[in-house]
Specification:
- By secondary structure, the protein is of the alpha+beta class.
- The protein has one domain (2-285): Jelly Rolls.
- The protein contains seven helices and eleven strands.
- It has helices spanning 16-27, 77-101, 172-179, 190-196, 206-220, 222-227, 277-285; strands at residues 2-4, 31-34, 61-64, 69-71, 110-117, 149-156, 164-168, 231-235, 240-244, 250-254, 258-265.
- It has an eight-stranded mixed sheet with strand order 1-2-9-6-11-5-3-4. A three-stranded antiparallel sheet has the order 8-7-10, with no helix packed on it.
- The chain is globular and about 55 Å long.
- The two termini are 30 Å apart.
- 34% of the residues are buried.
- The structure holds succinic acid and fe (iii) ion.
- Residues 132, 136, 138, 245, 250 line the site of fe (iii) ion.
Length: 290
């Protein structure tokens, strides 16, 4: 499940063989883990790891580098600026790592949101659809991806020695084969209406519809959660991992204080587009989905 790389440097140069090997592993659904790649906070940033900086009503504090917008937290202008600077530095570090490890993705790679997750996962309550302690593939109701891949870089910045504990489930093909037969097509005009009402940020393609249905049905199925083949992974503090969360069935069970950077990658930029959820779902359903 893991492809481990022993680098401690966000700007490390990797050999061509390692680049190809890592991309192949990741595109096949493995997690690329850097057990010793730490995102180090400056002394004045350590205060953000205290309960004084708990997000309001959400589980994340999110940062959009394009608009310089910070969401999910109320703080003084100075503190907000410090938080933005820290999150922006994480975005740049994660971006540099991806460009060095996967230079062939560079022309197509798009940078998404940065998120800081200071809330302990275990014991957090939410509706089942928002409950990330249930195995799922990522798909979001308001943000259609239209086939683009979701690539995420996580860093455990926990200061108290606490691991981030995940479960990882069966391969995407198995998830799709299991749940797809029960998924109906969206009703005519639904995607247009959702967009008109601004309930989605862009057009919800049939691909997005299917991914959202997979996400919801996996989470809703209590037997599946318990009985599907799965393994536990414990990400230690000061480790970093890269994972395609639209492809890897995952559940975050416990842990506090992680930074996460989202990237998007068009399917055509992959080494092997056939492995993408889009192509897998198209093959299984026998039609184009975007
Ligand atoms: C998730 O993507 O489901 C949550 C991952 C995490 O916060 O560790
Ligand atoms: Fe997720």
């Amino acid at each position: 499940m893991l492809k481990e790389i022993n680098s401690r440097d966000w700007n490390q140069v990797f050999s061509n063989e390692l680049q190809i090997e890592s991309a192949r592993a990741m595109e096949n659904g493995r997690i690329v883990l850097f057990p010793q790649l730490a995102f180090v906070l400056f002394p004045h940033e350590n205060k953000f790891l205290s309960s004084d900086y708990t997000p309001i009503r959400t589980k994340n504090i999110s940062f959009n580098y394009l608009t310089n917008g910070l969401h999910g937290i109320r703080c003084s202008t100075k503190e907000c600026d410090e938080l933005k600077t820290m999150m922006c530095r994480f975005m740049q570090s994660a971006h540099s790592l991806l460009l060095k490890l996967f230079p062939f993705y560079a022309p197509a790679l798009q940078i998404g949101r940065t998120s800081f997750r200071p809330v302990e996962i275990a014991g957090r309550t939410s509706s089942y659809r928002k409950d990330d302690t249930r195995l799922h593939v990522d798909a979001f109701p308001a943000t259609p991806n239209q086939g683009r891949r979701i690539l995420r870089v996580f860093s455990n910045v926990n200061p108290n020695g606490q691991n981030r504990f995940w479960r990882v489930g069966e391969p995407f093909v198995n998830v799709a084969e299991r749940f797809l037969p029960d998924i109906r097509r969206p009703w005519m005009g639904k995607a247009t209406l959702l967009k008109m009402l601004k309930l989605t940020k862009s057009y919800r393609t049939e691909y997005d519809h299917m991914m959202l249905q997979l996400h919801n049905r996996m989470k809703a199925d209590v037997d599946y959660q318990k009985n599907v083949s799965q393994q536990e992974i414990h990400f230690t503090p000061n480790s970093t991992w890269i994972v395609q969360t639209d492809h890897v069935s995952h559940a975050a069970m416990a842990g506090q204080h992680v930074l996460e950077q989202t990237f998007y990658l068009p399917v055509h930029a992959m080494m092997n587009p056939e492995l993408s959820p889009l192509r897998v779902l198209e093959k299984l359903s026998g039609r184009m989905l975007v």
